[in-house]
């Protein structure tokens, strides 16, 4: 259904409320506002409380003080000088950039091959990629763990990046997108004597920034939030990534200190949340494209 | 019971020949090609899994359970080989293209087809090495007693699987995983749909509401665990302090085996709702307004309009979300569990199937058992997806 009539029920309601003079009555659909404000509070309170605690000392946490405390600087010292959170963050940044950039390039290349070439056995190759959508890494992680140990890649960025650089999702995303680009473009490029790679980087990539952005958001969040794999394969603290590394703040130094832990949790969550909020539109378009195969 | 490889081959060949013979007969051509092709495929399928095992399931000193498992393997092998071949053959015989035609432009393709090879090599190599090979390895490991380091491997036939059937603890873990996953998926999706039906309305401040609602998607399951640890821990947690003050109730959120799974469920619902709200809002925006308008003119109330117009039109979104949410509940909750209840909770009450696999494979260094349980997990996810495809894929969607 492509044609949605311009004058819809909700559209008219919107126009009407804008033209209405200021009134002191309850706003229209006050129940919706009520539910939404409730939902926002429910989802916001845990993070808000974590923010509060990140400024508090343990004594203040146990006094259930619901105002900012006096321990922010001390907590900051614990997080960055005692526990070296920045080491984990740098490792995570390298891993995330590595996975996202390499995966995007590989997906662009395979998307190009699937759309702009006709070769024998194409459907078999395509099926080979398609089937991997049904193979979650988690169910073969034990064998992968053994294989990486055999390669002696433990505690290296190779183990953190290489196994995740190919993506059926990415390949389909670009295949779908390229297929929607008029074929006249590639004919014109060929007449001008462009080779496939020139065509890809000079013509297709500039037309695909939205799709690239979509894949980048999904992959950045996926890689940054990875927990199970680094936890298994990395045992050297100087190579550990952030989601596992943050756990070291729980241990040692007597009792659990909530302030530093929450400060770290908030700091760790900022990059993906900011990326996600800024690139929300691309994120959605990326997913909707992969959905209708 | 005497089951020789020859008998298995023969049975497989007969079944395969019958299946492909049927496909070719319906197409009305090349029946003489179909029968031998099917026989070879069926025979191959019959011994696909049991031959690498050395037919050990059918040895006389083995229990009946092993033999039954062996026959299941034979059936699975035949299905795995014959069904795809029948499908492909059927399409080829009817002259249908195997790849959807929309993304197959006939113009504008480059001349030298072999240039496609180097373009595909990176993706194909990575997929083969780090997805296909470990998958095959998982199958092989699941029949082994295998350890990392000491490097000793002994074949144990299908014991890693058959022992699971008799293991009440493992059945408990399956039940627990399903219980937790069910509530995570249903609560998260139900609440998200309710909130999305409000958030997609053209309210004042709608875009601010949306940002405030969807951001938890970008939080990691690990951080969700950490923040809920702060709020729900029995000593010093805000939740117990407030519920104790107001209602005089203090629950063992993390150390009571009955309550601990619910702490995991709550944390997971909190984290996953943002994603569901985002997609339900998008789904609702795709519902044609004139259909709802027509329903309103015909006198349908809000509930009936929702149930008869909006809900069926949302079915693709719901279907997509069920699949992603089940995957989330099965796999991604690992980090939340590991931070909230390290070690799998009091009396193993928050140990899911995934958590068990890692406990066995990484901490107990029993790779064979862990691989076998991975396969059980995989079968469950695939089974669930296929069931959903059959029920959800058929629903009428009015071409949206």
Describe this structure in words.
- The complex is a heterodimer of chains A (293) and B (400).
- Chain A is mainly alpha-helical and 293 residues long.
- Chain A has a domain of 186 residues: MetI-like fold, CATH 1.10.3720.10.
- Chain A contains 16 helices and no strands.
- In chain A, helix 5 packs antiparallel against helix 12.
- The N terminus and C terminus of chain A are likely disordered.
- Chain B is mostly helical.
- Chain B has 2 domains: 97 residues, no CATH class; 230 residues, Orthogonal Bundle (MetI-like fold).
- Chain B has 15 helices and 2 strands.
- Chain B has a two-stranded antiparallel ribbon.
- Chain B is globular.
- The C terminus of chain B is likely disordered.
- Chains A and B meet through helix 1, helix 2, helix 5, helix 6 and helix 7 of A and helix 4, helix 6, helix 7, helix 8 and helix 10 of B.
Number of domains of chain B: 2
> What portion of the residues of chain B fall into strands of 2 or more residues?
under 5%
What is the rounded distance between the termini of chain B?
A: 57 Å
CATH domain topology of the domain at 84-254 and 277-291 in chain A:
MetI-like fold
- At CATH level 2, the architecture of the largest domain in chain B is Orthogonal Bundle
Keywords:
heterodimer, A: 293 residues, mainly alpha, MetI-like fold, 16 helices, 68% helix, disordered N terminus, disordered C terminus, B: 400 residues, 2 domains, two-stranded antiparallel sheet, 15 helices, 2 strands, globular
């Amino acid at each position: 259904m492509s044609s949605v009539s311009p004058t819809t029920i909700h559209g008219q309601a919107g126009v009407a409320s804008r033209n209405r003079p200021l009134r002191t009555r309850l706003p229209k659909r006050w129940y919706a506002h009520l539910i939404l404000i409730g939902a926002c509070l429910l989802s916001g309170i845990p993070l808000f409380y974590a923010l509060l605690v990140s400024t508090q000392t343990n004594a203040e946490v146990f006094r259930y003080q619901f105002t900012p405390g006096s321990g922010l600087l001390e907590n900051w010292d614990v997080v960055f000088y005692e526990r070296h959170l920045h080491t984990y963050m740098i490792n995570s940044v390298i891993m995330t950039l590595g996975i996202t950039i390499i995966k995007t390039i590989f997906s662009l290349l395979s998307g190009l091959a699937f759309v702009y070439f006709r070769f024998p056995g194409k459907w078999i190759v395509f099926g080979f990629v398609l089937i991997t959508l049904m193979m979650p890494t988690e169910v073969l992680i034990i064998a992968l763990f053994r294989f990486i140990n055999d390669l002696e890649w433990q505690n290296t960025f190779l183990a953190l990046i290489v196994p995740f650089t190919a993506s059926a999702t990415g390949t389909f995303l670009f295949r779908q997108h390229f297929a929607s680009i008029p074929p006249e473009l590639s004919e014109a490029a060929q007449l001008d004597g462009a080779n496939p790679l020139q065509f890809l980087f000079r013509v297709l990539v500039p037309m695909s920034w939205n799709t690239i952005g979509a894949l980048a958001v999904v992959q950045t969040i996926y890689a940054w939030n990875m927990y199970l794999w680094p936890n298994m394969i990395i045992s050297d603290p100087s190579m550990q990534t952030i989601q596992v590394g943050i756990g070291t703040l729980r241990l040692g130094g007597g009792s659990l200190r909530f302030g530093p832990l929450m400060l770290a949790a908030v700091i760790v969550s900022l990059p993906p949340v900011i990326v996600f909020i800024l690139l929300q539109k691309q994120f959605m378009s990326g997913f909707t494209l992969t959905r209708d195969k | 019971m005497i089951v020789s490889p020859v008998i298995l081959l023969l049975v497989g060949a007969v079944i395969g020949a019958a299946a492909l013979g049927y496909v070719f007969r319906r197409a009305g051509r090349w029946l003489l090609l179909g029968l031998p092709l099917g026989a070879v495929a069926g025979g191959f399928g019959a011994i696909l899994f049991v031959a690498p095992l050395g037919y050990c399931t059918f040895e006389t000193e083995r229990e009946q359970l092993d033999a039954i498992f062996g026959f299941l393997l034979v059936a699975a092998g035949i299905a795995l080989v014959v069904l795809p071949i029948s499908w492909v053959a059927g399409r080829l015989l009817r002259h249908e293209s195997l790849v959807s035609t929309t993304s197959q432009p006939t113009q504008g393709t480059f001349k030298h087809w072999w240039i496609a090879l180097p373009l595909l090599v990176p993706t194909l190599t990575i997929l083969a090495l780090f997805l296909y090979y470990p998958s095959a390895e998982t199958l092989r490991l699941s029949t082994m007693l295998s350890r990392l380091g000491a490097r000793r491997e002994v074949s144990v036939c299908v014991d890693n699987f058959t022992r699971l059937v008799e293991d009440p603890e493992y059945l408990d873990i399956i039940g627990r995983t399903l219980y937790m996953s069910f509530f995570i998926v249903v609560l998260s999706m139900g609440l998200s749909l309710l909130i999305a039906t409000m958030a997609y309305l053209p309210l004042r401040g709608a875009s601010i509401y949306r940002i405030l609602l969807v951001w938890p998607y970008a939080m990691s399951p690990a951080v969700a665990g950490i923040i809920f640890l702060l709020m729900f821990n029995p000593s010093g947690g805000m939740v117990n302090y407030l519920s104790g003050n107001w209602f005089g109730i203090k629950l063992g959120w993390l150390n009571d085996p009955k309550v601990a799974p619910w702490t995991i469920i709550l944390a997971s619902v909190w984290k996953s709702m943002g994603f569901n709200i985002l997609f339900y809002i998008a789904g609702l925006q795709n519902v044609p307004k004139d259909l709802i308008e027509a329903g309103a003119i015909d006198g349908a109330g809000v509930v009936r309009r929702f149930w008869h117009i909006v809900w069926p039109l949302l079915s693709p979104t719901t279907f997509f979300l069920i699949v992603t949410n089940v995957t989330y509940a099965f796999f991604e909750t690992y980090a939340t569990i590991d931070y909230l209840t390290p070690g799998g909770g009091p009396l193993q009450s928050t140990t899911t199937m995934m958590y068990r696999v890692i406990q066995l494979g990484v901490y107990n260094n029993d790779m064979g058992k862990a691989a076998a349980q991975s396969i059980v997990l995989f079968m469950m996810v695939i089974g669930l997806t296929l069931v959903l495809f059959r029920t959800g894929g058929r629903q009428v969607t009015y071409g949206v």
